[in-house]
Amino acid sequence: MSELVLLLLRIGFLVLLWFFVFGVVYSLRADLFGVKVRKLPVGASAGAPAAAPAAPPRDAKPKAAPKNGSPATTSSVSKLVITSGPKAGLELPLGHESMTIGRSSESALVIRDDYTSSHHARLLLVRGDNWAIQDLDSTNGTFLAGKRLGSAPASISVGDAVKVGATTFELRA
Fold first, then answer.
1. What is the mean pLDDT of the chain?
2. What is the pLDDT of residues 118-149, one digit of tens each?
3. CB within 8 Å of 65: residues ≥ 6 apart
4. pLDDT of residue 21
C-alpha cells in the first residue's frame, strides 16, 4: 500500500471514531437534560388524518342534566392522586391543560426514579371532562389497568390505575 492510501485510512478511522464519541456525548446529554418536546398544532394528532374536535372554551358552562330526569353520565374529574411510589398520597389538581409526566424538571409531574424517562407520558384533556393518557415513546412503557400503552392516546376514566415507572396514580372526582 502506498503511504497516501494508508494516511487516508488513518484519517477516515479518526473521523469515524470522533463521530462515535460525539454520538455518545449527545445521547448522554439528552438523557440527563431531556430533549425538547414539540407541541402538535390544535386538531392534529399522530397517525390520524381526520381533525380532532375542538375543545370547549374555558368560559363554557358545564352541561346540565338531561331533561328526562336521568343524571348526567359524565363524572367530574378534579384531581390526580398518586397511590403508590415515592410520592404516594400526593394530590394534584387538574386544570384544562395537558400534563406531562417524567423525570425532567420541565414536566408538570416530576417523578425521579430510574424507571421513568425524561418525558415519559402525557395526560390529555380530550373532550369536556374526558381524559386520555399517551405514552411518549418511553423506554419502560406506561401501563393503564395493567396493560402497556402504545403511542396512541388511550381513554382513562375515574379510578383507572396508571403506572409510570415505579409510581401508580389515578384520576378522582
1. 76
2. 888 888 888 777 888 888 888 888 888 888 88
3. 71, 72
4. 96
Indicate the pairing of strand 109-110 with strand 99-102: parallel
Instruction: Name which of 160, 156, 161, 158 is nearest 173 in CA terms.
Output: 158
Contact 140, 48 (CB under 8 A): no
Q: How far apart are CA 34 and CA 114, in angstroms?
A: 14
CA nearest to 80, candidates 72, 89, 71:
89
Q: Which three cell numbers stand for residue 93?
A: 389538581
Beta bridge partners of 144: 147, 162
Position 45 pLDDT exceeds 70:
no
